[in-house]
Structures are given as structure tokens and as C-alpha cells.
Amino acid sequence: MKILDTRYYVLNTSRGQSSLEVLIALTIIVLAISAAIIVGFGNQSAVVDTELNNRALYIAKEELETLRANARLDFGLVASSTSQEGAYTKEVSVTELGTYSKEVAVKITWELSPTQLRELSLETIITDWRTAWEQSGTGDGGGGLEGDWLNPQTAGTFDLGPGNAGTDVAIMGQVVFLTGEASDPKKPDIFSIDVSNIASPQLISSLDTGGGLQSIALWNEYAYVANLSGTEQFQVIDISDPSVMNVVATSTLSNNAELPNTIFAKDDYVYIGTRVSSTGAELQIFDVSNPSIPSLEAEVEIGANVNDIYAFKDRLYLATSKSDGELIIYFVLDPENPAQIATLDQASTEGDSVFVTSYSDAYMGMNTIFHTLDTGTLSGISSIDSINAVGDVKDTYVRDYLAFVATDHNNAEFKVYNIDDSSNITLQSQFNFPQVATGITYRDNVVYVSVRSNDALRIITSTQ
Question: Do 184 and 111 belong together in one domain?
Fold first, then answer.
């Protein structure tokens, strides 16, 4: 047998090994490319999703800014709505939190694919701070209603002493400013009262300004008052320190010696209304940018008693005795050039009081009848509903769903009306006072009423 000598023979396996390596390499390359494609498409999808989400976020933020801007123009414009912006559906949901606050939710939805729906939501609370501050020229009114207003209670009272009667009331912080008229002209006629404890109001100081005061409005650190005199009817009182009040300026109305009925202060302007005058304008407007030197800027002939004034944004509302204009509205963006823009005629009545919460909503006392008004269309102002208060409605303050009313009804001078449905006013509760209720204001779930009695300040709140 021939034996093969293998020392000189080596198996040639390099060709098979090379082929296997090529196959493995190709497989790796294919897998790598596939993975790259998958990652690429995945990244592209993530980028698209992020871009769509960012766009939705931008739309939501932009809508909230638009709503805030609308609120500054007219709080009533902050309302629920649904609209389309390109591929996005925009849904605005608004919930009333009270007269001056609304909770707003903006939801944006869009399709990522026919089977994938995305949504994004932003929420905030929008408050009509400017209007809240303007209320009655007395501050922001503080917190909203709470507790049981079906059964209100008298928390405290303040007695001015014999021979003095309350005529009007305003509040700033925890200090009430009460005006009065005394049988003796030497007696004080404005009082600052500490109401930090409403159960025990304490006199801070008092001041004699003359023959008595009819009405008061606060702006910044000054009280603007209507003096019951045929001269110097307008007075400015520094109340920056309520313990040391002092008169810093007085003005006699132009060609009008009649007694003033009402006063309102807003944005460095004071509006004062008088009884009907045969010689001068019943509405006179003063610039008080320098309170020490008030300057008469405009006079408006009404031809009737101006019983109450309310300034809301760029409008001035007058409650008058005019036979064809119980309510008269002026445009006062430039208070030096007021322009009449609307009237309301309710036959055989007299406008006694007015309170405004928006361009669309106003509340009036016309003799003994309390009205909710639709003022949204100036050419067609109308009464939505009314209720008989039995006595003349002397003053009104509206907060959230309630209207607090001061009347001369001899058995129920203080009334609370539920106006949650403005088309269905209902009596919520009422109180009997010793005398006529003359003025009313509100702060932090507490109502302050001036009464034509020596027991001149009544403090009322809900039961808890």
C-alpha cells in the first residue's frame, strides 16, 4: 500500500471561509440598514409628533392671551366656544367663579394618524381686576359670597350719637368711611371706623366739613364727598391716615347752587350729580389728578335730578328723574368730552340707583321697582325682569349671584335679591332697620349699610 505523505498537503479551505464571511457580512449590512431605516422612520415620526405638539401648545397659549385681552375690553367676551384652526380643533370652556372671576380651559385636539388622536389642555383663572376695583369707587370688594344668605345676620352696628344720621358708606381695606347729616351743623359729618372686627366696629376719627355730606366715593388715598350746601358742593378729603382726616380742597359747582345728590370717582376723574338746576348743568366732571387742585373739565345739562352715577370702563351711567331717560349712558373715554350714547325710558318712573357689572348687565332701582337690565345693545336697552321692593330703591350693590338693596320700605329697608337668573329675580332675605337705608357697599362677604338714624352703620353677613 502506498502511504500518502501529508506533510506536503494542506486542505485548501480559504475559499469556503471567504464565502461564509461574505454572507455573514452581507447579513450584518442588511440588518444594519434595516435597523437604520426603522430608527430613521421612528425618529422622523417622533419629530413630526413633537412639532405638532409644539404647534398645539402655541395655539393654546395664544388663545389664553386673546381671552385675557378680551377680558380687559369686556369681561363678557370671555365665553365658551369651539373653532377650527387648520388641522387643530380648539375648544374653550369657561366656568363662572363669581362676578369677577372665570376659570378658563383651552383644549386643542388633532389627528396624528387616522387611528391616533392627540389632545393638549391649558387652564387658568381670569379675573376682571379693573372692574372689581372700580366698584363704587371703594375698592375691589375682596372675596366672594359664602355661607347662608337666606338667613343673614347683623354682625355689628355703629352709633353716631343723637342728632346725626347716616347718608352714605364706602370701604377701603378694613376701614369704613361713613358720611352723615346732623341737626347741628357743628357736629362731624364724616367718620372713619375700624371694622377689622365686624362684631365690634371702633371709631378711628371724625371730621366736621360743614353742613353735612350726602354722598362719598373713594379713589386712591382720598375721599371725594358731596357737601349739602349751595356752595363748595364738592370736597376732597385726605384719608391716607384715617386717624387724621383733613379737607384738602373744595369747589363750588359752575352756575349751579343746587344740592348735590351723588358722586363717583374713577381714573382721576370725579363725577358729581345734583338736583335739577335752572341755571347750570346737573352733571359736572372734575379732573383730580392733583387732588389738592380739582379742575372742572366738563358740564352736561340733564334737565332733571341726577340721583345716582356709576362709571364703568369708558361709560358713565346716570339714574335720573328725566321723564324720557331714567337711565342715560355717556361715552367718557375722554371725560372732558362726554357723548350721550343711549337712554332707557320706563314710563312714569324715576331712576334712583344704578350698578353695572359689564357692558351687557346693569341693575337699577326705579322708584319702588328693582330691575335687571340688558344693556348689550345700546339702541335697544331693555328690562329683563323686575320686582317690587315696596319702598324706593336708594342704593344697590351686586356681588356674584346676589343684589343687595337699600330701600325706604318701613318694614324691610334692607333686601337681598337672587339674580342668578336675571330673568327671574327672587327675594332671598330682608331686614327691618330703625330708619331708611341710604347707602350700601360690600367687602369679603360682609355688607355695610348706612341708615338715616343715629344707629347709622349696620354690618350684615351670612350665617355659616
Answer: no
